[in-house]
Amino acid sequence: KKDAANSGFGTTSRRIGKDSVKSFDCCSLTLQPCRNPVITKDGYLFDKEAILTYIISKKNEYSRKMKEYEKQVKQDEEEETAKANAEQQKKLDRFISTEKNIVSNKAVIPSGPDRLDFYGHTFTLYSVPILVEKPSTSGAISNVSLGKRKELPSFWVPSQTPAAKVSRIEKPDSRIYCPVSNKPLKAKDLIEVKFTLVKDPSDRKSLIAKENRYMCAVTHDILNNSVPCAVLKPTGDVVTIECIEQIIKKDMIHPLTNEKLSESDIIPLQR
């Protein structure tokens, strides 16, 4: 910077060239002159084919993401069902193991017959067996006996190695957003635009090669990037902002069709 200042030339700022600026009549997606121009409610110009292709691709992407989300929801339901069944089976296994421990830890203490003489009659008495619970030999119930083997992963068996969980998929948004303004966009909201060609019999250049291609539909002023423009929604005609301020806003009547206009019918063209 010091050398540049001393030499008198070579600054860090640079002006953007003409080729780097999108022309006012070019599509915001293809950056080429529109064959069938349409405009959004926010004033962004698109080629009809390009913006409809974009909308269809976004709808297909939403359908794909929705199928993945529904698959994830179905897997979650199956996992919940399997978890509930496993919990029920675990309770059943615990109950069966407890019952087995009670039966195996009980022993019968036999009691021999006893005789009783009563007024010359002899009676034989048999005692009822007594169930005495023996203390358990093991201090705690083994995890393996309660079916814990399936819960404990094994790092050396391929089928039981722990795996990283897949990231969760959020429910996709069904709305489609404008690629420029990022606002909700619908195909039915697109408004067809009608440019007025410059009539010059002596100019035999092609439409793309012409520098002055279009003019205001009312005042016939030449349109370019330095002239602010707007679109009249009922007919799609492109006029200059100066025409709107000086002519149209006086009576709010369309100059070409004598139709009553409102503020929402005037859409400024974004440059």
From TrEMBL:
Any one GO molecular-function label of the UniProt entry: ubiquitin protein ligase activity
Residue ranges of coiled coil: 59-86
Gene3D superfamilies the UniProt entry points to: Zinc/RING finger domain, C3HC4 (zinc finger)
Cell compartments where the protein resides: Nucleus
Superkingdom of the organism of origin: Eukaryota
UniProt main location, coarse: nucleus
Domain annotation Nitric oxide synthase-interacting protein zinc-finger: ranges: 1-59
GO cellular component assignments: nucleus
SUPFAM superfamilies the record matches: RING/U-box (SSF57850)
Keywords: Coiled coil, Nucleus
InterPro entries reported for this sequence: NOSIP, Znf-NOSIP, Znf_RING/FYVE/PHD
Pfam family, one: zf-NOSIP
Family the entry assigns: Belongs to the NOSIP family.
PANTHER family (alphabetical): ENOS INTERACTING PROTEIN, NITRIC OXIDE SYNTHASE-INTERACTING PROTEIN
Protein name as annotated: Nitric oxide synthase-interacting protein homolog
